[in-house]
Write a structure and sequence with these properties.
InterPro entries: Cyt_c_oxase-like_su1_sf (IPR036927)
Radius of gyration: 17 Å
Number of helices: 4
Number of domains: 1
Protein name: Cytochrome C and Quinol oxidase polypeptide I
Distance between the termini: 26 Å
Largest sheet: none
Keywords: Membrane, Transmembrane, Transmembrane helix
Organism: Pelomicrobium methylotrophicum
Number of strands: 0
């Protein structure tokens, strides 16, 4: 498995742990953590734990279903950095009530999603061994 894909899964697990701890802190003492804790927690769990794990496993497994290597390792590396810069920016923005930071983080996160989709489509569907190319 490519090191980047392992990092995606590892980072995803760390986001899950951090999101769980944030929720516990908020439940134990509401107001202890400033900002919009529910939004931060939700994104830590969905974009962090879930999507980062999907990225890591997907980049490894999905191209193999089509019988071809990943279309672009460079795009996957860029996706890694966009995803891992975007989510912390969003979380920091919500916890620090910095809406502009949430916006920048959101753009990075959506760009990472688009790169993943592009890479998957061009790795599998458009280069399938069944299409005769």
């Amino acid at each position: 498995m490519h090191r980047r894909n392992k990092l995606f899964v590892s980072v995803g697990l760390l986001w899950g742990l951090a999101g769980g701890l944030l929720a516990l802190a908020h439940l134990a003492q509401p107001g202890l953590v400033p900002g919009n804790v529910p939004k931060a927690h939700g994104h830590m769990m969905l974009l962090g734990l879930t999507l980062m794990t999907i990225y890591g496993v997907g980049l490894h497994v999905i191209p193999r279903f089509g019988g071809y290597p990943l279309r672009s390792e460079k795009l996957a590396h860029l996706q890694f950095w966009l995803a891992n810069l975007g989510l912390p920016a969003m979380v920091a923005g919500w916890l620090g009530t910095l809406n502009w930071l949430v916006g920048i983080g959101g753009l990075f996160s959506v760009a990472a999603m688009a790169l993943f989709a592009f890479n998957m489509v061009f790795s599998v569907r458009l280069r399938s061994p069944l299409d005769g190319r």
